[in-house]
Amino acid sequence: MATYRVTHDTLTPNPVNPNICTSFSAQLGAQVTFAGVSGIQTVSQIPGTTWPFSIASPMTVPNPGTIHIKSTGLNVGTTYPFNVSQTCFDEVQKSVTIIT
To answer: What is the C-alpha separation between 64 and 20, in angstroms, rounded?
Structure first.
């Protein structure tokens, strides 16, 4: 009887580079580099919602500001809202949708 070694490649999530003033999609564990940050801004949790980032809320981000999406505890297909302190052309609340 032959034996086979099965290996599993560790998939690295694709990094994303959204503007701080836009909502975006990302994979679990993805590196997020916010572009368009004016000075240093605060990204914070909306009370009663699940925080999608690996750094505790509130967090500050410079330009560019690199953080990560949590690698566990979030659901694919779910959108997680958050606030940014930067004045944007539309509403302050933004979100990240978790994708595969």
So the answer is: 10
In a domain, 85, yes or no: yes
Domain count, the chain: 1
What are the tokens at 84? 């940014």
* Alpha-carbon distances of 59 from 4, 45, 62, 76, rounded to whole Å: 47, 9, 10, 23
- Whether residue 83 lies inside any domain: the answer is yes
The reply to whether 10 falls in a domain is no
Question: For residue range 52-90, what is the model confidence (pLDDT) as tens digits?
Answer: 999 999 999 998 778 999 999 999 999 999 999 999 988
Which tokens sit at 17? Answer: 């580079």
Question: The domain containing residue 30 runs over which residues?
Answer: 24-99
| CB-CB contact of 52 with 58 (8 Å) | no
Rounded to an integer, what distance in angstroms lies between the CA atom of residue 60 and that of residue 99?
A: 25
- β-partners of residue 67 are 32
